[in-house]
Each structure stands twice: as C-alpha cells, then as structure tokens.
Specification:
Layout (H helix, E strand, L loop, with lengths): L6 H10 L1 H21 L4 E9 L6 H15 L16 H4 L2 H10 L2 H4 L7 H10 L1 E5 L5 E7 L2 H59 L4 H33 L4 H22 L12 H35 L7 E5 L12 H35 L1
Antiparallel strand pairs: 1-3, 1-4, 2-3
C-alpha cells in the first residue's frame, strides 16, 4: 500500500513554496522588529550584597549560652543546630518594600498604569525586579528602569528599605524576647527574696550560718568528749582493780565519769552545743538548710545568665545597623537591556516560518486524502 503523504513528495511541496515560507518569515521578523522599536527601552542596574553576621543577637546569645550549658552536662546534641530563625531572603520579598519603592519613584506613572489597581503596578514592578541568591551566600538585586540613573537609585533604595524592614523585625523580636526575659527575671528576684528571708529566719531560729563549718566543729568537740570518757572509763577500771570498788578514790572517779556521760547526753539531745538545735536533729535541719542554700545559688546563677541576654535585647530594640551590606555598588548602564529586538525578531520569524510550513503540509495532506478516497 502506497503512503498517503510520502516524504519525498512533502519535501517537494516545501521546495516549491519556499519563497512563500521565506517571505512570511521575513515579514514576521520585520514586523516584530518594528513593533519592538515602539516599546520603551529599559536599562538594568545590579547591586551585589551580603547579609551581615549577627552572632550577637539577643536570641542567638541566649541559645549560645544554653548550648554551652548543655555541653557542660554532655548534652550538646540536645541543643539543636545553630542558625537563624528565618532566611534573610524572606525580607527581600516583602510587600512593604515594593509598595515603598512604587511610592518613592512614582512607578505607576513610569509603567503608564495611573488609575489601575495597586496589584497591577506591583506585578509590573515584579517583572522589572530580580533577586538572586548565589551559592556563595550573596544576593544580586537587579532592577530595570527607563532611566539608567533611576535604576541605580532604585537599587540603592531597595537595599535601604530592606535594612529598615530587617531592623523593624529585629526590634519586634527583641521586644517580645525582652518582655519574656523581664518576667523571668522578676520571678527569679521574687524567689531569691523569699529564699533570703527563709535563710535569714532559719539562721535566727537555729543559729545555723555555716552548716559545714559548724558540723566540723561539733564533730571535733563530740569526738574529743567521747575520747575523754573512754579515757576515764579506762582509768576507773584500773583503780577498781587496784583499790576495789569501795575505795573513796574509785567512787570519786565513778562520780566524775557519770557526770561526763550526763553532759555528753545533754549535748546530744539538747539545743545549744552546735546551734539552737539538738545534735540528734542536726541531720534534718542541716539538710533543709543546704537545700535552701542550693536553691538560692541555682536562682542566682540563672539570673546571672539571663541578665546579659536581657541587656542585649534592650540594645537590639534600639539597633539601627544595616542587615544587608553592599559589596558592589550599582553602576550606570551603558546600553539598554530590554527589549532585545534582534532576539524578538528572530523568534517571530522562526515561529511564523514553522507555522507556514505546518499550514502548507496540512493543506497538501488534506488534498492527498481527498484524492485517494475520491478515486476509491
């Protein structure tokens, strides 16, 4: 069975109509070029920036301190990874920056969109704005404008508005963090005041000021008293062996030993020896005092940790340092960047040429099908 539309025949059809194809392509290219001549010329300006290092932020300082504390306990992995709370590129795509640019440079007039909805002006500005994040971490911000000098000013203003928004966000974050830290410090101060009162009252009631030193002194005195009793018991035994139990010297020694044992018993069971408490109650009283002291020291350490962070947040509330630093200033464009007339003309000519070829092949194919089925 013969082919409905052979390849050789198709090529022949195209060759016979090559001038039609070329004429259509040339006319389309010329028309597109003439049309682009009516379009306004846009000049491109680019500024190269890097985000400032912000290791001393309030939250960063607090997280760094927490990380150090966790490291001391061998829990570094629980501290999480170090990093900012959001990517800086988020700031570059805020609507407030675009609205400020539109208002400052009257872009509605430049784009001939007076009286149109604000969103239309934003969309047009977005088509003339390019923000690119390089792999090295720098940002390239490009803006197109009909005036090359205006494009340079727009790049500089865009960076300025970005820094304003970034500082405003940092201040908002600092205010929120500062409020929380102030509440925590206030609660810690209340706890420290309560513990101070408890320790003072404990000291007045029990005459307990330094449990460790008082315990050492009491233990030394008790051991000395018990050693003396043991010595006197030994001496009493020797006297009884030598003189008998009824000897006056033996009775005097026994009486003195009984008095010493009674004194030791009173020391252990009555307040006054180591403080205003009995030695038998020393463990419970000392343990409670040590617990109160430990809580006091813990709160004091937490307060010492939080105060520098709180001061940093207060400084951050007044911070106005740039968050985006300019590496390469924008320069005046020497030639237009848009429209690319040659590229548009070539694309139009090529596209129309392809469409004409498809149209010719479609017509010839339809004729071939009609002839084939007409004969049958």
């Amino acid at each position: 069975m013969s082919e409905i539309f052979p390849t050789a025949s198709m090529i022949g059809v195209l060759l016979r109509r090559i001038w039609i194809i070329l004429a259509a392509a040339v006319l389309a290219a010329v028309g597109a070029y003439l049309y682009t001549r009516t379009l306004p010329e846009y000049f491109k300006s680019t500024v190269n920036c890097v985000p400032a290092q912000n290791d001393q932020s309030s939250l960063g300082g607090a997280m760094g301190g927490i990380g150090s504390a966790l490291k001391d306990f061998g829990l570094t992995k629980l501290g999480g990874s170090k990093g900012e709370q959001y990517e800086f590129i988020v700031v570059l795509f805020t609507r407030s920056i675009r609205d400020s640019m539109i208002k400052e440079f009257d872009l509605a007039t430049e784009y001939e969109l007076q009286g149109k909805p604000m969103q239309s002006v934003r969309d047009e500005f977005e088509s003339n704005l390019e923000v690119e994040l390089r792999a090295e971490g720098n940002y390239e911000i490009s803006i197109w404008s009909k005036d090359p000098a205006k494009a340079v000013k727009m790049c500089k203003s865009f960076v300025g508005y970005t820094n304003q928004v970034a500082n405003r966000i940092a201040r908002m974050d600092a205010v929120k963090t500062s409020g929380y830290l102030e509440q925590r410090v206030s609660k810690i101060d209340s706890a420290i005041a309560a513990l101070t009162d408890s320790l003072g009252r404990y000291g007045r009631d029990y005459m307990l000021f330094s449990p460790v030193d008082q315990a050492k002194a009491s233990a030394s005195a008790l051991s000395e008293a018990k050693a003396n009793i043991l010595k006197q018991e030994t001496l009493l035994g020797l006297l009884e062996r030598s003189y008998g139990t009824d000897d006056p010297q033996v009775r005097a020694q026994r009486s003195m030993l009984s008095e010493m044992e009674a004194q030791l018993q009173r020391v252990q069971t009555e307040p006054g020896f180591a403080g205003n408490f009995a030695i038998t109650d020393a463990a419970g009283i000392g343990a409670k005092y040590v617990k109160l002291t430990a809580e006091f020291e813990a709160y004091a350490k937490v307060k010492a940790f939080l105060l520098p962070t709180l001061e940093q947040t207060r400084l951050d509330q007044m911070k106005s340092t740039p968050s985006l630093l300019v590496v390469d200033e924008p320069i005046l464009a020497e030639k237009k960047d848009r429209p690319k007339r040659s590229l548009v003309a070539a694309g139009a000519g090529f596209g129309v040429g392809v469409l004409v070829i498809i149209l010719i092949l479609g017509i010839e194919g339809w004729r071939s099908i009609k002839q084939r089925y007409g004969k049958s």
